[in-house]
Write a structure and sequence with these properties.
2 copies of one chain form a homodimer.
Chain A (H helix, E strand, L loop, with lengths): L2 H19 L4 E2 L1 H8 L3 H9 L11 E2 H11 L6 E6 L3 H7 L2 H5 L2 E8 L8 E2 L2 E2 L1 E2 L3 H8 L3 E4 L3 H13 L4 E4 L12 E4 L2 H14 L8
Parallel strand pairs in A: 3-4, 3-8, 4-7, 8-9, 9-10
Antiparallel strand pairs in A: 1-2, 5-6
Helix pairs in contact in A: 1-2, 1-4, 2-3
Chain A binds a DNA duplex (24 and 24 nucleotides) through helix 1 and helix 3.
DNA sequence: TAGATTGTTAATCGATTAACAATC
DNA sequence: TAGATTGTTAATCGATTAACAATC
């Protein structure tokens, strides 16, 4: 399955859920693509990698396609997620309902700050960072969300990987080095803004006359 | 400039800042690539689009390259950023120091909740959502960060665009429709986790025997 | 000069797009 | 059957990689 396709599947899943909520039983590549913000050709091509069973002349069964994508993404089993770094951002993410809604269980919170350890956030007691391996083992977490300061991100990541985590979503700026069997996704807010600045640049810095 | 290159420039900038902090005056494509997590061939290729002036046999002048990338990304002028949606996540982002550190000015906060409007967050007074156009005009914001509930994201986005915003960074799940002159970057935490789940999937759901 | 390292070229690879035959 | 819509094919496009000539 092409990586670019995998990266779009969550968007299709969401679009399907919106379609299902509207009560529709069937949908078309045209409608679904519009909702997901891609072309219908792209959508059909992507779904073809799933060995999808739409019906020519008819369209896709909403619930069936939803299940197909859910299985393909590996969301049939609930994945256990550990969050490391309960600062402002970590706190916000821990309380983010979308995580549980979309098939994940937040099973642990870890922080290095003694003032934070022991407090309850999102129904979980924050555990100390010096027992990272223990927390991973006890919770069975396979995915970690990293919201630590950039300076410690690599070290924490190394410990997580050593403890058995195979997927890391990091919000710390800077590249993380991991072994080949581990998957890293990086969200860097400042980088995103800088990319937007690039496009803004061409349009003049003054805000423009209307 | 290829989009893929633009998307990597912020990473190079950050790598250069780390290099500068270490006191080095010169660097090589090899070293910089290692820091940025790409190959040296990729880095040189990317920099070639800047018309970069490294010196063969010598390397790159750290400060000079830093300025080149800063100019290329349009970061010579400070971009004004407006944040809409001061919930958990919006609050965290408003207080995120990295935004100011990396060349942006947070110039306004907006929320629809009367209980939040009027409070001070990150040194700014939260303004009411019904005056979105006015806030954009007064602040001269060209970039907006969207941390509203998904249900209102499209409507808020439309208003921002109508008011003159040309770049939107959205954290709300779901595709945003915008006119061609507007640039959207989307961060979807749940989608990122689902992509990680895909890779986790292949490795078995049990946590694995060690 | 000899060693190092860039900038560029050419080859490869993967992703997107458009068109249409298959088929419901 | 006629109309609709998929799944697939082939063409295009863009991005990555590897190698090396240029040159400091």
């Amino acid at each position: 399955m092409p990586p670019a396709t995998v990266a779009r599947l969550p968007g299709y899943l969401r679009a399907l859920e919106a379609t299902a909520a509207s009560g529709a039983v069937l949908t078309s590549s045209e409608e679904l693509a519009r909702r997901a913000g891609v072309t219908s050709a792209q959508l059909r091509k992507d779904l073809s990698h799933l060995g999808s069973y739409g019906r020519r002349g008819v369209g896709y069964d909403v619930q069936h396609l939803r299940e197909q994508i859910t299985v393909a993404l590996g969301l049939s089993d609930v994945r256990r997620v550990l969050l490391v770094g309960v600062g402002n951002l970590g706190h916000a993410l821990a309380n983010y309902a979308g995580i549980a809604e979309r098939g994940f269980a937040l099973v642990g919170l870890v922080d290095a700050d003694p003032a934070v350890v022991g407090t309850t956030v999102a129904g979980l007691v924050v555990e100390p960072a010096d027992d990272l391996a223990g927390v991973v083992a006890r919770t069975g977490a396979t995915i970690a969300v990293l919201t630590t300061p950039a300076e410690v991100a690599q070290r924490v990541c190394d410990e997580l990987v050593a403890a058995g985590v195979v997927g890391v979503l990091t919000f710390a700026p800077g590249a993380l080095r991991v072994p080949p069997h581990v998957d890293v996704r990086a969200v860097d807010v400042a980088s995103e803004l800088q990319i937007l600045a690039f496009h803004d640049r061409a349009r003049g810095a003054g805000g423009g006359a209307s």
